[in-house]
Design brief:
The complex is a heterodimer of chains A (216) and B (188).
Chain A lengths: L2 H21 L28 E11 L2 E7 L10 E10 L3 E12 L3 E15 L2 E15 L5 E7 L2 E2 L2 E2 L8 E5 L2 E11 L2 E10 L5 E11 L1
Antiparallel strand pairs in A: 1-2, 1-13, 3-4, 4-5, 5-6, 6-7, 6-8, 8-9, 10-11, 11-12, 12-13
Chain B lengths: L1 H18 L15 E9 L5 E11 L2 E10 L6 E14 L2 E14 L5 E10 L9 E6 L4 E6 L9 E7 L14 H4 L7
Antiparallel strand pairs in B: 1-2, 1-9, 2-3, 3-4, 4-5, 5-6, 6-7, 7-8
Chain lengths: 216, 188
């Protein structure tokens, strides 16, 4: 198949995937991969492999203002792994964290992305959220089912200890906060993993802690 | 106050000088090169949290990575931020481990100063409790390599992942020696 034809089908794939996700009951824009990371492109139907990878320790949208901490940037080449880190990170009035890091790496047949941070302290709509460690991982292997993984340890919401089940898309609602643990958004070409996704009941704050995206 | 802070760094310096066994041998750059990534926390020798997030490997004929470590034994917590990665090594005795060496800045604790460092990260499978992390710095700080978990009073948490080799990402050629990559720093 020519690269032009491949691109055409990718465009169709993107449109189809977005349409399907948009029509999915209860799926908000945030759950399409925003604000953590942009959604994945649709699956290719052959031809050359397109690598998609990105990771960020924190991405927050507060009253329309987007702030990211430790964002790897977008992977474009298997020979060009990307990563970043910072010892301390904060968004005034919203959160603080330590030892933030994000990395995305590609091979000819797979992409792996990872984001992590420690000692998270966050307040959304007056509700405190803490965690000792938050990690997200995404792995997409050519011809295989993409895999996502989150580690959330020491999580409390509103002073209440919350135990992650490990299952994808564990929903927790406390005092009006909508929290999704180990949020996984699959597409034909890859996966977006948001370890901890918090939205307030007013729609003014949307925070993703630990976002990893991998597609091929 | 300053004397206390000095002692916090001076004591580990003396201990490190006593306990280190000199440069280890037979550590080398893996070929083809691979990557290691991870984040989490361990319990320091005084019962304090030490948080870390790090990744390393090779890229475009050089070494690649970032290392950030924050030790709550100090007030304010001392944190290491890498500014340059000078080495990425494997130890045949610990095939799941990689060492990342580099230069960095330590802030907090005793102020701000530059160091060289050597981090060990070891991936011993999922879910990560058996993974190990350690840090040795040129100022004498020595966090011996220890397990991340299990979470609890004596254990930390997190996860370290050793990724497969990638022939398209290469380190320096010829590969530098261990002492060139991590001058004067033994494995933590």
């Amino acid at each position: 198949m020519s690269s032009r034809a491949s691109s055409f089908w990718k465009v169709i794939g993107v449109a189809g995937a977005l349409a399907a996700l948009a029509a999915w009951p209860g799926i908000s824009q945030a759950q399409l991969g925003l604000p953590g990371l942009p959604p994945l492109p649709g699956g290719g139907s052959g031809g050359t492999q397109t690598l998609t990878g990105q990771a960020s320790a924190v991405t927050a949208v507060v009253l329309g203002t987007v702030t990211s901490l430790a964002d790897s940037g977008t992977l474009v080449d298997a020979a060009d792994p990307l990563g970043t880190g910072q010892p301390l990170g904060s968004i005034p009035g919203l959160l603080s964290a330590e030892a933030l890091h994000a990395a995305t790496m590609g091979w000819t047949d797979q992409v792996a992305s990872e984001a992590s941070l420690g000692n998270l302290s966050m307040t959304v709509a007056g509700i405190g959220i803490t965690a000792t460690t938050v990690i997200s991982r995404a792995l997409a292997v050519s011809g295989g089912v993409p895999v996502g993984l989150s580690n959330i340890e020491g999580l409390t919401i509103g002073g209440v200890s919350v135990s992650p089940t490990g299952l994808p898309n564990q929903a927790v609602s406390i005092a009006g906060l909508n929290v999704i643990l180990n949020e996984q958004i699959q597409s034909a070409s890859g996966i977006v993993v948001n370890a901890l996704h918090v939205t307030d009941p007013f729609g003014s704050t949307d925070v993703v802690i630990g976002a990893a995206k991998a597609g091929i | 106050m300053h004397k206390t802070i000095y002692m916090l760094f001076a004591i580990p310096l003396v201990l490190a000088g006593t306990l280190t066994s000199g440069p280890a041998s037979a550590h080398f750059v893996p070929a083809p090169c691979d990557f290691i990534t991870g984040g989490g926390w361990v319990i320091g020798d005084s019962g304090n949290f030490v948080n870390f997030g790090a990744h390393g490997g090779c890229k475009n004929g050089a070494f690649w990575g970032h290392v950030n470590v924050l030790d709550h034994a100090y007030n304010p917590p001392a944190h290491l931020r890498s500014t340059k990665i000078t080495g990425y090594l494997m130890d045949p005795a610990f095939p799941n481990a990689r060492d990342i060496c580099g230069e960095g800045v330590v802030d907090g604790g005793a102020g701000s100063f530059t160091v060289t460092f050597r981090v060990r990260m070891e991936d011993n499978g999922e879910p990560g409790g058996s993974d190990r992390f350690g840090l040795h710095m040129s100022n004498g700080y020595d966090l011996t390599t220890r397990e991340l978990g299990p979470p609890g009073p004596t254990g930390g948490g997190g996860n370290i992942q050793l990724h497969k080799q990638n022939p398209s990402t290469t380190g320096p050629s010829p590969a530098p020696t261990e002492d060139q990559m991590c001058p004067g720093l033994s494995t933590p």
